[in-house]
Amino acid sequence: MKSLQEVFQANRLSLSDGQADSFSRLTEEMLRINQSMNLTAITDPYEISVKHYADCALMAEIPFEGATVADIGAGAGFPTLPLGILRPDLKILAVDSTAKRMRYVAETAALLGLSRVSTLTARAEEMGKKAEFRESFDFVTARAVAPLNMLCELCLPLVRAGGTFCALKAANGQEELSQAQKAVEALGGAVKEVREISLVDPKGIFPADSLKRMLILVEKIAPTPSQYPRRYARIQSNPL
Predict the structure, then answer these.
(1) CATH number of residue 197's parent domain
(2) What pLDDT score was predicted for residue 175?
(3) Is residue 1 pLDDT above 70, yes or no?
(4) CA separation, residue 186 to residues 92, 227, 240 (Å)
């Protein structure tokens, strides 16, 4: 996985030999399963290294040691599986409404020895109404799931007071953020930090615009009002 190590080095991301081996096994397993299940449209290992692994690694340093993490809309395990490889101290719950994808994530986590990664087949808006999950996570994240104003209603109810919601967005993140200010405030959050990052492609293959990323960090400063989250159809038709 020399190319993966080059990608991480170019993006100033740390990667041990053992972690590189785990990513190599993850790539092999994902591409094997992808032949029969739609996990990813990206199938070139180098492109996976840049657009999946380095992309997810951008947030790896943010959760504090031993934090509880929920990955909402985890899909094929991004960022759950890269986070599990890079931060084995984190207790990560991957959440998605598609059972077969959660089964894949659970089986792949076991294959990689990621003992602190677990899965839950559920809808976030229903999960956020349950006492066992509501305002219980230190760190909640979502990647390529929905517009930010909708994501806030799905994710912020799960974040404990003082915890963080991290949305990983592409270049349009600033526009989404401006449209989500009302939602952030209504749901008990406050924008703490916005990190604009351009991924580095050491081979120079991909257009620069396709590599622009934005990490939007929202701190939970007050409890989410009990009427949120609403039903998904309502969130979608009338976002905050």
Answers:
(1) 3.40.50.150
(2) 87
(3) no
(4) 27, 11, 8
On whether the CB atoms of residues 68 and 47 are closer than 8 A, the answer is: no
**Number of folded domains in the chain?**
1
Coil, helix or strand at residue 114:
coil
Q: Is residue 229 reached through a cis peptide bond, with omega within 30 degrees of 0 on the bond before it?
A: yes
Nearest Cα to Cα of residue 184 among 144, 207, 216: 216
Task: Output the six-digit token pair for 185.
Answer: 């405030």
Asked if pLDDT for residue 145 goes beyond 90, the answer is: no
Q: From the CB of residue 92, how many other CB atoms can be counted at a distance below 10 Å?
A: 29
Which structure tokens are listed for 17?
């030999």
Residue numbers of the domain that contains 159: 62-237
Q: Are 62 and 164 in contact (CB under 8 A)?
A: yes
Q: Evaluate if residue 2 carries a pLDDT over 90.
A: no
Backbone φ and ψ of 37, nearest 5°: -140, 135
